[in-house]
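writing this on my phone so excuse typos. first protein, seq and then structure
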Amino acid sequence: MLSAAATVVARDVRLAFRQGMDSLNAVVFFVLACVLFPLGVGPEPQTLARIAPGILCVAALLAGMLSLERLFQTDWEDGSLEQLALSSLPLPLVVLAKVLAHWLTTGLPLLAAAPLLAVMLQIETRALPALLAALALATPSLSLIGAVGAALVLGARRGGVLLALLILPLYIPLLIFAAGAVDAAAFGYAVRPHLMLLGGLLAGALVLAPLTAAAALRQALA
């Protein structure tokens, strides 16, 4: 069963890198959004350092949404999703494998680009570990919650707009706790409570999101 799930992950990663645009678009959007903010608010280091955690978290959130609509769409259009649903692999595990592939091709590149952008935005060096830890916990949750939204809007017209309306309210706690962790580290406060809350949200999403997305996919395939 695990080998079948690994095959789904490897297939999706291979397809993502073969197409290339979704992952590249996410990283380019992330970089451009962070670069444009200093042009709008001014280059003062103190101002940038104060708003940088929010900028990075919001930009990462929006960048991760760019490829969510296609998480199941391509497989639904070519019939692969129906074959996966009829296979011996449980559908929640299929969802989890596809979410892992999405995070590897979208969330992980964002995580790699974040330290360089943080330095550009004048974030304190001591806050960089907290930034990486917060994004490492938040970005998988973004993919898991996004998978639920992508499954619910599968086959719908203007699915991208509906997807944003469904999942953005659910992203707000992740945004608050991730930015709060970086702020706390920058000012010398305890980071652990923020990271524990992010970890709790990730644990809950790992359990609930695959089951919910699988139920929505069965409804779409019915």
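second protein below, same order as before
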Amino acid sequence: MFGVLVVEDKDVIARLLATCVTGNRWLTLAGVAATEQAAIDMAGRLSPDLVLLDFGLSTATGGFDVWRALHELERPPDVIAVTAATDMSTVERARRCGAFGYVVKPFTCATIDAKLADYTSFRRSVMAAPTRADQSAIDRRFNPRHRSCSLPAGLLAETLESVVAVLQAAEGPLRASTIAERANVERGTANRYLTYLCDQGIAVRVPEHGRPGHPAYLYTLSPSWTPEPDDTAS
């Protein structure tokens, strides 16, 4: 079992995250903290394997202040960022800090469940690995996103490759309608694949500012993702 510390200052979200943790049979809820100091104290006392860390907290840098403190622990935990921040500077900073995952608020339970399943699968594979590793195994350890995975029902590897190729070729973030046109798929189909890519940390969704009416979003590849042959394996 892997212990998880939830760090979130909004009670409703904290309870939702805690429910997701307890719903995974490989995880146990180590605790819930609502402030930076409580998070640091509990992490030092409980030694969690994973921290679901809200970047917002009470200050703009609160989440990163906690992260710095976590890195100073004798056994630093893994971190999945849970935040409303979609600016690329924050995404890139999280990547440089070594985040295992990045979840944008508002999120669905399915998104959190998928990230937690991804984490437990990776940690279990590491624990079962030999005490010595070749270069490919070491590369996977240092970048856990470089691993093969099965696509959910209804998603095709060929279509996923087409959507990723459009994002790779783009000079900047694109609307879903533009991606659908360039990938030669329906708009609804493009949205399903873009949602999957965002859930996997391969793509990120950013607001399109200055457009009247309902909120609109643009999509781009995550700066933390680099292509490998197994990234779109079925």
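The chain has two domains: 2-127, 157-221. thats all i got for now
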